[in-house]
Amino acid sequence: MNIKRLLAFCLFIAVVFTSAIGPVNVANASAPAGWRDLPDFYVFKDKFSGWAGSGADELETVNGSLPVDTQVTYENLPSLRLNVRTTLSSYWMTVILCLAEWNCHDVSRYVPNGYLEFNVKGKNGGEQFLIGAVDHVAERPSGVEKTITRPITDYCTITTEWQHVKIPLTDILDPSLGMDPYNAKAIVLDKVNLDPFCVWINQLKITSPDKENAFPAIKVNQVGFLESSEKYAFVSGFEDDFNATVGTEFQVKRVSDDSVAYSGQLVLVADYDAYDSGERVFKAIFTDLKEPGEYYITVNAEGIDASPKFKIGNDIYKSLLVDASRYLYYQRANIDLEAPYCTDYPRKDKTPQDFNCAFAPIHQLQKMCQKDGTMPAILISM
């Protein structure tokens, strides 16, 4: 009997306190400190990609790159050894430290207030070298690549002790210099003169005190939805300037007259999306709206603009199929591209075939083969 009374009492306490606590609104939880800060972008921490070399092997390299020195460290991390062992009799050397393998990388958000930061020390003190950046813009008339370098002495005097250096990115990557920070390729190192020198560079990184950009809150499929398909939009933003919460109302409105075709409430997906966006994410579900037409979405929260327009209908992908087919047709060679199949860029064939100079049948070509299996030179030249 005592056990039954004890169990009943515990159940009573659990019910009472659960009711008292009530539902917890996790959407009001906070993201970790500094979650929206632009992250440090390491060019070299303990590994890197790139190339280094000199005309007569004056620059010390390992497999075509600067050696990573695990014996000379700072803050328990290795360094890059930039070591010109003898006078540069070949008159040239270059070091390329790639940002994204050999691809371009967008550092435009970092440039306005950011820095190229690293630790450096010399073998003897007083060493000099150039440091800067190179971009890669294939369509630039003045040249595909542009390089800007600065003397290290503009920012520090190298000693035999480690010291921290901060070079403003505006000195080496600013658009006013002709650089394209959307297409940054690498950090580069070069000589000031032909004299030998040796320095170590540690924790080379791009930094900025700025925050990640905020983007329009409503993310919706701009092509649209089939009438019977699942329909939803994501509504998301950084919690420090995002005013939507669980239960915030949204509307799907007709473009034709701005009337409301559907309304609902936002559903929480992630209070803090730690893996992808760093945002608080909600979902606006409107699967029940099946009426064909053109729509846009609004949310009843300050600072959230209306979504792009989209369509609902069973023919929404027709134009995509037409465009894809037309794209393949536009690539055809040896024919005229004419209406009604080519509506935008009709053209005459500029490489007509010469039917008076037809290829020989395959059995004739086989007979013409040499005994060793190779083709006569006249056929190869064709």
From TrEMBL:
Domain of life from the UniProt record: Bacteria
Domain Carbohydrate binding: 40-208
Keyword match 4Fe-4S: no
Signal peptide (residue range): 1-20
SUPFAM superfamilies in the record: E set domains, Galactose-binding domain-like
Gene Ontology MF annotations: cellulase activity
Domain Cellulase Ig-like: 216-302
One example of a Gene Ontology biological process annotation: cellulose catabolic process
Keywords: Carbohydrate metabolism, Cellulose degradation, Polysaccharide degradation, Signal
Family, similarity comment: Belongs to the glycosyl hydrolase 9 (cellulase E) family.
Identification of the protein by name: Cellulase
The organism's taxonomic lineage, starting at the top: Bacteria, Bacillati, Bacillota, Clostridia, Eubacteriales
